[in-house]
Amino acid sequence: MNVIVIGGGAGGMAAAITAADNGHQVTVLERQARVGRKLLSTGNGRCNLSNTHAAEEHYHGDSALVSDVLRRFGVEDTLRWFGELGLLTVTEDSGRLYPFSNMASSVVDVLRFALEKRGVTVVTGAPVTGIRVKDHAFTVTTEEGVYTADAVILAAGGAAGAKVGGVMDGYRLAKALGHHRTALYPAIVQLRTDPTYPRALKGVKAEAAVSVCRSGEVLAQRTGEVLFTEYGVSGPAVFDVSRAAATVGERLTCVLDLLPEWDEERTVRELSRRRNLLAGHEARELFTGLLHPRLGQVVVKASGFTAQPLECLTDDDIRCIATTAHRFALPVLGTCGFDQAQVTAGGLRTDEFDPDTLESRLVPGLYACGEVLDVDGDCGGFNLQWAWSSGRLAGMLGE
After folding, report:
1. DSSP-H helix ranges across 132-263
2. What fold does the segment set 2-184+347-395 form as a domain?
């Protein structure tokens, strides 16, 4: 059977290799100049290719579909598959999985070698402009030529990361065949907040519990590294709550607990001790040795104190500063856009695809996998695991 895979990213390559292993003639059509370009930028160039904790609770959209797919092709199966392709991996204490070389290029190379070994035809610089179906046969048109196939696997990715291949192609092509999609939002992305304090803290990193709140209700919360930027906050913990900020809307606040391992009473006791220990210094030095110097000074300033002598701070003043440290609030203006997002929240409606095969219920012979579907995962390798799992399932072509 002749199979065309639209998209040469993680899911597309996994689908193409699997289909070829099952004896099919496979052609990959990739709009970029090379396959796997987006993969090269993942994990800060290290490629966080999976996570040992991959399970339904780490996914959004149709998370039930994820559970079904992971039962077929889970993390252990993925590691075994990559091992057969020649990739060695290492596992961090957090569960994140990386190539042994710590280089994303290693992942791309073993996939590229696997495509070559199986005789998969890879056509790059080939944006697909249309798909037609007649008598169960597909005609796929690109800017350079026309291809025919018995089956098509749509692995065109999502709208995130335009500089490394994020496009709307998959949604547009599926819509022309009768499919529908949900609303699209940037996810795993930086938050834009009131810049007053972040701008003063640009480049500062801190461990914090990060919450996205509206009217006092916590919509999402994660603990981890936070990076202050000129326009707001970034970092792994922020990435994991950014989906809530993108999808919920306005009147949100990003609340940082800058001492997440302490309760407020412990902080009050420690700050009271420091008031006496550092007598003769200004109030802004209260967090010296406890927080990053600039961060500590900003917390004191946000509490309404700066140049007063430390010994002049009352017990109520100390409690006010402690409260600020545990509830450092930044009004949310929105998220950064799809250009800076690592993944797309939303996508093709999954109820229009068979969960056992990922074949379209509307167009027999059409399959979809990866980010183009309404599935997105948390930061930490979960989205790539979805790409491998769904790509391999789609590549089975219902067999």
Report:
1. 169-176, 196-200, 236-248
2. FAD/NAD(P)-binding domain (3.50.50)
pLDDT in tens, 64-120: 899 999 999 999 999 999 999 999 999 999 999 999 999 999 999 999 999 999 999
CA triplet 168, 139, 173: central angle to 5 degrees? 15
Q: Which element (helix H / strand E) includes 363? A: none
Domain range annotation of the chain? 2-184+347-395, 190-336
The SS3 of residue 375 is strand
SS3 60: strand
String of DSSP letters for 77-128: HHHHHHHHHT--EEE-TTSEEEETTS-HHHHHHHHHHHHHHTT-EEEES--E
* Extended beta strands in 215-327, E state: 217-228, 232-234, 253-257
According to the model, what pLDDT value does residue 164 have? 66
Q: Are 13 and 42 in contact (CB under 8 A)?
A: no
Beta partners for residue 223, in sequence order:
209
| Amino acid symbol at 182 | T
Dihedral angle at the C-alpha atoms of 267, 271, 277, 283, nearest 10 degrees?
A: 150
Strands across the sheet with 50-51, in order? Answer: 50-51, 96-99, 89-91
Q: How many Å apart are CA 126 and CA 145, to the nearest integer?
A: 9
- In the 8-state DSSP scheme, what is residue 181? B
**CA atoms of 25 and 194, how far apart (whole Å):** 54
- Angle of CA points 39, 28, 114, to nearest 5°: 65
**Mean pLDDT per 10-residue interval, the chain, length 399 residues:** 97 98 98 92 89 95 91 96 97 96 96 98 96 95 94 96 79 97 96 96 98 94 96 95 90 97 97 92 94 97 92 96 98 94 96 97 98 95 97 96
How many alpha carbons lie under 13 Å from residue 79 in its C-beta half-sphere? 17
Q: Which residue has the tokens 């701070």?
A: 313
Q: pTM for this one?
A: 0.92
